[in-house]
């Protein structure tokens, strides 16, 4: 008895006479052979040239029967085995070619402008296969088309074309994981990339296309010439997004966070999230309620709602987004991570980030490379993101693909993390929804990113006032001839008997009628659904002087230190780390002053003990760029990946907050944006982004300008992100000296941020605690001196940490003198330059003549505190602002008006510091020393 599945080894060699006999029996009487052989020979008889079952003169007779009749001599049998083996290998190569290169021949362009890139490898002849082989059943290796593992070559080719070269195409063979490749292959090949939606589902897709198209046309005619960045030509994206929201719940998703730029945003707000059309019209007409100091344009606004789905309520939010395309993406990821973490062990299954991209921006902006790079790292992974690309095939109106990328597809950037890419024709909304379902299933299975590239077009220019025919005449001739996505789908559904033309028109009229009333056709949002969320009322404080107890009893400090200086038995500490731990024990006992690293560690330890989580990220944050933190200890006898790291602050006891310190990827823009998003969704945690050097924040300037400094006044978004910027002039050249204090201060207004330049370790301790324990949720920017991390004079005694102690926005003069009336000059400064000035005063014996006051908080400016300090010196008419930065940089020009606002009538403000400079600092040590000497001299005597 032969096997159920025929094996080619039966057909040749010593079995040839037996096969010949079976074949002759089949020719005489098809029913005289077993069913499997009958099916096999019947398929052969269908080969072109056969007549009935008499195939004596057919090609198959030549390719099979004649071979089979040859004598079974060893040489001939071996040659025959090799011939059929080559054929089988050729078939497998052909299948592989379709899986790899089929996308080049796919029917993806709705405008049919892109010529087919037929590869030679997709031609059977390229693999040694001929017309005579088309009816021969071949094995598909480990493939599975429609549940079969063997079929005629002609059927194999037809199935390959339908799976890989139709309105849907795949790129997944770049994925290293065999398991993933096999999963994707079986998912699509088993159904030939063909969705099977029922009548009701098809009607629902049509309703969504109708809503998307009708809204755009309504706005275009009602608000002529106004920008809206419409999605006409890509309406299938709205259907796909709605399908995602309605179906993600079956996998346990409870919340979807969407990040997208302008294109289609208004449509998503109304037709996906349920924003009331009347509210949108009010924004177009300038009647919208003024809720925030500055506000923002309508196509930047965010929104959130609870939407009814078959699997229960789904909370959906669209993140606020500025004009800088794609920058919102890491913000969404950070927000998702914070919410996932709050939901506990299965949080990644419950919160799904969805990012909607433009084609040119997707591959053109580096923030996407960085966001992909974050996607699988330990401190930033969110369990996989669904990426949807609205591929208008044009980018900006004047763009040409030859100028916008160096890759074949705009999605090729996703291959860096081995993400699969599903390309789909935007004129086929059913396959767009099918691709969405595949993405959901893939994410659930592998917890990885996946990309859906919706190849569509854009009906208008970059915006509705842009004439695209000026630079894209031929493309827009095609666009003008296209009937629209909805019209083509209506035609399909009428042909299928799903709807009538009248029913389809009724959908339009019903939607327009609702728009005329400023209402929805179908209300899917839930107005009374109660969900667990953060109580933001606790973080609405507006008084930065809020009295918060940040000091600790000495006994508590010692108790905390006992825990975070303990290491596991047998743990091989580095000698430096061992010295640090021993010193911290002495500091906690009051035997020596507390340095910067210890001050930070006590703050973190107290916060996690109180249940507040701490998250620190930066390019060297575990050890600290300047080797001061040592939050992560490394066993000197074990590799990192073999659990050779120990984090003491994770072992502070039961029921404590989480502590996570991350050595991040080498990128500032995406990481700061990520931490901004995290902090916005985790106001109860201390979230810190630390630059390796303060000027590294330059790489994140978009985040600083468009989110951190203005997010509250534009969108009402509170954020308590702490940014640590190592800063200080130590003769190390133009780079890495300055954190660009002036840039940050220039952005300060409306109490939007806190800018601090502390000069003592205890100040950092109180700052970090205040940031979490108070109700004041504003970004905190700390210009942390590099030199002071180990500078003995900047260490603080234990009593500066104990009960009753506080952060001091202004630190008065500490020099001893018989009377303050002798002081003729007060020098104001911030940061480490204080110690240069203090040393210069001592050398010159000027303690009685000059007072030095430290302005630790540069914004919000401490007017009352500084005024009170200056009042101590009634005879001081000379008030000097001294800084180590050049005059055109640093704080002077940004706070000069504030300083002058606290002076008495008989006092005059002057400047002492380096002269104006194009570079932040000099590169010659000799010149640096000379400048420092001169600025100290000017501040104290001139």
The gyration radius over C-alpha positions equals 35 Å
Supply the CATH superfamily name of the largest domain: Thiamin diphosphate (ThDP)-binding fold, Pyr/PP domains
Q: Identify low-pLDDT runs.
A: 1-17, 47-74
CATH topology (fold) name of the largest domain: Rossmann fold
CATH secondary-structure class of the largest domain = Alpha Beta
Task: Give me the side-by-side strand order of the main sheet.
Answer: 3-9-10-8-7-4-6-5
Question: What is the overall shape?
Answer: elongated
CATH arch. level architecture of the largest domain: 3-Layer(aba) Sandwich
SS-based class: alpha/beta
> What oligomeric state do the depicted chains represent?
single chain
Tell me the helix content: 25-40%
Put simply, the count of helices is: 31
Number of strands: 24
Strand content: 5-15%
EC number: 1.2.4.2
InterPro entries: 2-oxogl_dehyd_N (IPR032106), 2oxoglutarate_DH_E1 (IPR011603), DH_E1 (IPR001017), KGD_C_sf (IPR042179), ODO-1/KGD_C (IPR031717), THDP-binding (IPR029061), Transketolase-like_Pyr-bd (IPR005475)
Family: Belongs to the alpha-ketoglutarate dehydrogenase family.
Pfam families: 2-oxogl_dehyd_N, E1_dh, OxoGdeHyase_C, Transket_pyr
């Amino acid at each position: 008895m032969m096997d159920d599945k025929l094996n080619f080894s039966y057909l040749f060699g010593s079995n040839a006479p037996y096969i010949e006999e079976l074949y002759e029996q089949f020719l005489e009487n098809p029913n005289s052979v077993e069913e499997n052989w009958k099916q096999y020979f019947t398929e052969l008889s269908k080969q072109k040239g056969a007549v009935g079952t008499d195939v004596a003169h057919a090609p198959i007779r030549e390719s099979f029967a004649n071979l089979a009749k040859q004598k079974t001599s060893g040489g001939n049998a071996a040659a025959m085995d090799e011939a059929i083996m080559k054929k089988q290998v050729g078939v497998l190569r052909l299948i592989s070619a379709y899986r790899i290169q089929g996308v080049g021949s796919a029917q993806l362009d709705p405008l049919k402008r892109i010529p087919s890139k037929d590869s030679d490898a997709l031609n059977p002849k390229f693999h040694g296969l001929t017309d005579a082989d088309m009816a021969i059943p071949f094995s598909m290796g480990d493939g599975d088309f429609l549940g079969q593992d063997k079929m005629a070559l002609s059927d194999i080719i037809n199935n390959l074309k339908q799976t890989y070269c139709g309105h849907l195409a795949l790129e997944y063979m770049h994925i290293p994981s065999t398991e993933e490749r096999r999963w994707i292959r079986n998912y699509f090949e088993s159904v030939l990339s063909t969705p099977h939606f029922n009548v009701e589902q098809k009607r629902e897709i049509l309703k969504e296309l109708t809503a998307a198209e009708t809204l755009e046309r309504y706005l275009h005619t009602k608000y002529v010439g106004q920008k809206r960045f419409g999605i006409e030509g890509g309406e299938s994206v709205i259907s796909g997004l709605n399908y995602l929201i309605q179906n993600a719940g079956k996998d346990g998703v409870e919340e979807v966070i969407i990040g997208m730029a302008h294109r289609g945003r208004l449509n998503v707000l109304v037709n996906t999230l349920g924003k009331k059309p009347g509210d949108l019209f009010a924004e177009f007409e300038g009647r919208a309620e003024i809720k925030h100091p500055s506000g923002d344009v309508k196509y930047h606004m965010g929104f959130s709602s609870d939407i009814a789905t078959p699997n229960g309520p789904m909370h959906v939010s669209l993140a606020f987004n500025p004009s800088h395309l794609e920058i919102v993406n890491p913000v969404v990821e950070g927000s998702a991570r914070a919410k996932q973490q709050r939901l506990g062990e299965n949080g990644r299954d419950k919160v799904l980030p969805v990012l909607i991209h433009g084609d040119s921006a997707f591959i053109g902006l580096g923030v996407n490379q960085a966001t992909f790079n974050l996607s699988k790292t330990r401190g930033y992974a969110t369990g996989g993101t669904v990426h949807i690309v609205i591929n208008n095939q044009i980018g900006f109106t004047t763009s040409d693909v030859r100028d916008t990328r160096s890759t074949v597809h705009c999605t090729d950037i996703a291959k860096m993390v081995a993400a699969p890419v599903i390309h789909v024709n935007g004129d086929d909304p059913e396959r767009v929804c099918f691709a969405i379902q595949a993405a959901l299933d893939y994410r659930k299975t592998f917890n990885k990113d996946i990309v859906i590239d919706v190849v569509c077009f854009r009906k208008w220019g970059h915006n509705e006032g842009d004439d695209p025919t000026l630079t894209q005449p031929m493309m827009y001739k095609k666009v003008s001839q296209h009937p629209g996505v909805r019209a083509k789908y209506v035609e399909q559904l009428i042909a299928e008997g799903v709807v009538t033309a009248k029913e389809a028109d009724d959908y339009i009229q019903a939607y327009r009628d609702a728009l005329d009333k400023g209402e929805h056709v179908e209300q899917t949002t839930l107005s009374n659904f109660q969900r667990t969320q953060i109580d933001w009322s606790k973080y609405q404080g507006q008084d930065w002087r809020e009295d918060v107890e940040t000091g600790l009893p000495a006994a508590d400090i010692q108790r905390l230190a006992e825990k975070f200086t303990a290491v596991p038995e047998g743990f091989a500490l580095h000698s430096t780390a061992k010295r640090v731990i021993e010193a911290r024990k002495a500091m906690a006992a009051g035997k020596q002053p507390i340095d910067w690293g210890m001050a930070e560690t006590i703050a973190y330890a107290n916060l996690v003990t109180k249940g507040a989580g701490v998250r620190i990220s930066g390019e060297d944050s575990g050890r600290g760029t300047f080797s001061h933190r040592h939050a992560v200890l490394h066993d000197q006898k074990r590799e990192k990946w073999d659990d050779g790291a120990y984090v003491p602050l994770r072992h502070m006891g039961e029921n404590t907050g989480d502590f996570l310190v991350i050595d991040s990827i080498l990128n500032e823009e995406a990481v700061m944006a990520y931490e901004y998003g995290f902090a916005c969704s985790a106001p109860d945690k201390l979230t810190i982004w630390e630059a390796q050097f303060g000027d590294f924040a330059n790489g994140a300037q978009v985040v600083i300008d468009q989110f951190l400094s203005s997010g509250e006044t534009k969108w009402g978004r509170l954020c308590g992100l702490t940014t640590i910027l190592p800063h200080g002039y130590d003769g190390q050249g133009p780079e890495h000296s300055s954190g660009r204090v002036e840039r940050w201060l220039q952005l300060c207004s409306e109490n939007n941020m806190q800018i601090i330049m502390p000069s003592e370790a205890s100040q950092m301790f109180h700052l970090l605690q205040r940031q979490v324990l108070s109700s004041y949720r504003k970004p905190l920017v700390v210009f942390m001196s590099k030199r002071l991390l180990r500078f003995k004079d900047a260490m603080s005694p234990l009593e500066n940490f104990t009960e009753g102690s506080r952060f001091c926005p202004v630190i008065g003069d500490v020099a001893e003198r018989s009377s303050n009336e002798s002081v003729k000059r007060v020098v104001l400064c911030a940061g480490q330059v204080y110690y240069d000035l203090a040393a210069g005063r001592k050398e010159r014996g000027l303690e009685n003549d000059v007072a030095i006051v430290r302005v630790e908080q540069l914004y919000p400016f401490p007017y009352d505190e500084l005024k009170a300090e200056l009042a101590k010196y009634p005879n001081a008419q000379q008030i000097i602002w001294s800084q180590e930065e050049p005059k055109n940089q640093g704080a002077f020009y940004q706070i000069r008006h504030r300083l002058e606002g606290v002076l008495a009538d008989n006092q005059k403000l002057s400047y002492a510091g380096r002269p104006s400079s194009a570079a932040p600092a000099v590169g010659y040590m000799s010149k640096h020393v000379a400048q420092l000497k001169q600025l100290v001299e000017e501040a104290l005597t001139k």
